[in-house]
């Protein structure tokens, strides 16, 4: 979908299997562009889903409505959220980078992060109507 992120990294295997490249239509490009900005800014590899390479992550982007993972009305189910892992950086370091670059990231479409996820960073582009970054607890 972008220079560094394939559609397989953004949707679960059953969605890719059913929809192929058209699965990209289920993702909000704004949040993928935020992930790409973080990739470019840090210069470090970022893992979202890695199921297509035999890894454990398959629900770090879009989630199937039938999943038992996460909240019932999670932004992941609307293709507006990504859980990312930046190689060599702690989650809090990445959140601080986001706060420090808020004006730029807001223009790309970021609205919300979860403030206390331990080993990953949740970003989403839900509507908030706010001028500031919304930081919600991890549930
Ligand atoms: Zn998440």
| Rg for CA atoms | 14 Å
CATH architecture: 2-Layer Sandwich
Distance between the termini: 29 Å
Please mark out the parts with pLDDT under 50 across 5 or more consecutive residues, or reply none.
none
Number of extended strands: 5
Number of domains: 1
Helix content: 25-40%
CATH class: Alpha Beta
Largest sheet, in brief, is:
5 strands, mixed
Structural class: alpha+beta
Shape: globular
List the helices and strands and how they pair.
Layout lengths: L12 H7 L9 H14 L3 E2 L33 E6 L4 H10 L1 H7 L3 E3 L6 E4 L9 E3 L3
Parallel strand pairs: 3-5
Antiparallel strand pairs: 1-2, 2-4, 3-4
The protein binds zinc ion (ZN).
How is this structure best described in words?
- It is a single chain.
- This protein is α+β, with helices and mostly antiparallel strands and 139 residues long.
- It has a single domain, classed as Muramoyl-pentapeptide Carboxypeptidase, domain 2 (2-Layer Sandwich).
- The chain has helices at residues 13-19, 29-42, 91-100, 102-108, and strands spanning 46-47, 81-86, 112-114, 121-124, 134-136.
- A 5-stranded mixed sheet has the order 1-2-4-3-5.
- It is globular.
- The mean pLDDT is 97.
- Zinc ion binds at residues 76, 81, 83, 122.
């Amino acid at each position: 979908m972008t220079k560094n992120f394939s559609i397989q990294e953004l949707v679960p295997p059953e969605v890719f299997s059913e929809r192929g490249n058209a699965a990209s239509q289920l993702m909000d490009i704004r949040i993928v562009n935020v992930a790409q900005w973080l990739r470019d800014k840090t210069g470090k590899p970022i893992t979202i889903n890695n199921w297509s390479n035999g890894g454990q992550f398959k629900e770090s982007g879009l989630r199937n409505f039938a999943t038992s993972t996460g909240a019932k009305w999670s932004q992941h189910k609307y293709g507006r959220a990504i859980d990312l892992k930046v190689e060599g950086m702690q989650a809090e370091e990445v959140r601080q980078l986001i706060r420090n670059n808020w004006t730029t990231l807001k223009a790309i479409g970021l609205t919300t992060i979860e403030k206390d996820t331990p080993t990953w960073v949740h970003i989403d582009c839900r509507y908030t109507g706010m001028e500031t970054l919304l930081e919600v607890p991890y549930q």
